[in-house]
Amino acid sequence: MGGVDAFVGMSKSVLSELNQFNTIKPRAFCPHPLYDNFGKKVKKEEAIKKLNLDSSQKYVLFFGLIRDYKGLDLLIESFAKKDFAKENIKLIVAGEFYSDQEKYTKLIKELNLEDQVILANKFIPDPEVGLYFGAADIIAQPYKTATQSGVTQIGYHFEKPMLVTNVGGLAEIIPNEKVGYVVEPNPEAIAEKLFEFFTKDRANDFNENLLEEKKKYEWSTMTKTILNLHQQLK
Questions:
Q1: CA 3 – CA 231 distance, rounded (Å)
Q2: Between the chain's N and C termini, which has fewer beta carbons within 10 Å?
Q3: Which residues of the chain fall short of a pLDDT of 50?
């Protein structure tokens, strides 16, 4: 802390924790800007074709390295709480397992969800990221603990509705019922809102708001925040 002159907190929870160490130095809240290095949006039809997916299905995407705190088990369990199969809804899990994969595959089997869950268990290279987000109708981040998540900013870049859990700083940048949902981290709550998203056709409502909300996370905003802090140091 001694060598730092000012702080930028990318979540309000982290900024609050900073007070345990320092309450004097200048600080500002600014979420991480968009991850815009994954190329342009890919049309759903094109993405589904390139990923060899079924065009008659709808897709929920869980994306990124798979660690236990990210709550993939909650998301899998949520698919057993509603009749997602009847609505042609499937879950895509795209990313490497950094925790015990058997725990999740066993859960999928126990819940008879082998036909509902698509496991793309691999590192997703940059050129393929847009395909997975293009194929998805909604992005799910069912984290059990978190400060923030880069997946959120990828979702904004590709203008995809998102469901996040009410932990850490996730809810700070996903206005509930505006660009997606903020729910409690349990399978029932996750299932209810995902099911509502598809059965009540909420995509159009959220998509219009996403275009406006994503403007808050332009890189110029981060630049201005840093420059304003610099001015306070003079």
A1: 18
A2: C
A3: none
